[in-house]
Amino acid sequence: MTDPLFILFIGVLIVVGGIIGLKLHPFLALILGALVVAFLTPAAAVEQYALSKGTAPAAAQALANKGIGERIATEFGNTCAKIGILIAMAAIIGKSLLESGAAERIIRFMLGLFGVDKAPAAFLVSSFFLGIPIFFDTVIFLMMPLVKAMTVRLGKNYLLLVMCIMAGAAMANSLVPPAPGPLFLIGEMHIPIGLMMIAGVIVGLFTITTGYLFAVWVNRKMPIEIRDSLDAPLKDIRAIAARADRELPPLGLSLLPVLIPLGFICADTALNAISKTGELWADSAFLTGLVAVVKFFGDKNLALITGGIAALLVLASQKKTSKEGMSAHVQGALLSGGGIILITAAGGAFGGMLQQTGISTRIADLTAGYQMALIPLAFLIAAVVRTAQGSATVALITASGILSGLAMNANLGFHPVYLGLAIGCGSKIVPWMNDSGFWIICKLSNLTEKEALKTISPLLVVMGITGLVVILIGAKLFPLV
Questions:
Q1: pLDDT tens figures, 10-61
Q2: Are 367 and 381 in contact (CB under 8 A)?
Q3: Type and span of the H or E element at 16
């Protein structure tokens, strides 16, 4: 009854059963799972977990003596501290890009760069990079009308375009911060955000390339024509396609909300990689000041706040709305992000309770001498949870909660970023009717459920497995330790 694997099984059963069987909101299911796991975990296991993390004996005993509710609330709060501001600001950036027309300007630039004949590749790349600062469903809502408009122009390749935007947005959502899942994951597994961003983009480009080739094959095998719908009549699509460029913000201005946070975070990561002591710039007052500015804004919270301010300024310059109008846009964004913060924090509480069972030590014992097997294990755990309950974010949270204790293992043999990437790729498998993203793509594209199961579901399976192969090769050739 006290074996960590048994407690894990009960916890996952409650979360998955609650979401699927009882139709509970993920927040409630995760909190209930955390409560049961905490109840089943003996105080001795909690104390041993704290000691393994380097906690002083007195503090470890104090943690073991805390009430269940207090332990859950502490982990809930710790997660909010890690990702709360980031998700809120990412929501504001996404909403502002959408409302100001900046996102559409970026997409049109990509189309011009690739050419109309290469529209699928342009949509693939655009949706991937837009999916970094913007939530998955927002990317789909943004891109789908443009997919239909492009199909009207081309007269073909509707399914290919739909699969391209799904491929790009889905992979960015699980591999590259500041998407909610990767943000939680890097906090749990102590992975530098800059490294996760760079590695996530590299792995993501491999996976979406394979996804593109698969989409081309499926489009040839079972082409699907664009269908008229009440929410997106073809006459309205033609009006969108005819919108003048002068009605959109300039490209440079449109890119600022994305480039500012990414630039500061990547610059801070590069500085940390070059020197940890500051010897290279110690003799120059200018360089010292510049480094101080980069490090100040390179903090992930401040970087996203700066990007959010830039996004609101772009929105204000285009909309020229009243203060009340701007407030309404921000409120709408925060309502969207708030639900994700609650679910993610509840997942943090659930993962924290699982960690206190000693599950990471148990898994480490089972895989002793087979460290490379941890990468497919991380992939498998995330895939099983995703398939069972439908949410890639919950799969990321659950798998990282289980495996986070292994990330600091000195004998791991490779950087824990590879475990994080494996979890991200595993969380793509397998989307079906229990996945909200599955229904979003079905309803917006007017694909039937059967068509989506034949196209979208295998697309993400192919990309997830491709990512696993790339990660295994990378961990072997470039362990980064």
A1: 887 888 788 777 878 888 888 898 898 888 888 888 877 788 777 788 888 8
A2: no
A3: helix 4-16
Q: What is the pLDDT of residue 231?
A: 47
CA distances from 457 to 163, 211, 214, 340, 430 (A): 10, 11, 12, 23, 6
Task: Say what the pTM is.
Answer: 0.70
**How far is Cα 171 from Cα 136, in angstroms, rounded to an integer?**
9
Tokens of 460: 């993400």
Residues of the chain under the 50 pLDDT cut = 231
CB 140 within 8 A of CB 49: no
Q: Which of 117, 480, 97 is nearest to 260 (CA)?
A: 97
Name the 3-class secondary structure at 330.
helix
225: Cα separation from own chain's centroid: 31
Closest CA to 91 of 341, 316, 264, 321: 341
Find how far residue 420's CA is from the centre of its chain: 11
Buried-state track 3-17, b at ≥16 Cβ within 10 A, e below 16: ebeebbebbbebbbb
Alpha helices in 190-284, H assignment, sequence order: 193-221, 234-241, 251-274
User: Three-state SS for 45?
Assistant: helix
- Please choose, from the candidates 343, 424, 422, 346, the residue with its C-alpha nearest in 3D space to the C-alpha of residue 377: 422
Query: Contact 49/358 with Cβ under 8 angstroms?
Result: yes
Can you tell me the distance from the alpha carbon of 67 to that of 39, in angstroms, rounded to the nearest whole number? 10
CA distance 138 to 180: 13
The angle that helices 26-40 and 68-100 make with each other, rounded to 10 degrees, is: 160
Q: What Rg, from alpha-carbon coordinates, does the chain have?
A: 23
Whether the bond between 26 and the residue before it is cis, its omega within 30 degrees of 0, is no
Supply 217's token pair: 């094959």
The residue to which tokens 């927002």 are assigned = 138
In one-letter notation, the amino acid at residue 420 is G
DSSP E strand stretches across 270-381: none
The Cα 361–Cα 49 span in angstroms is: 9
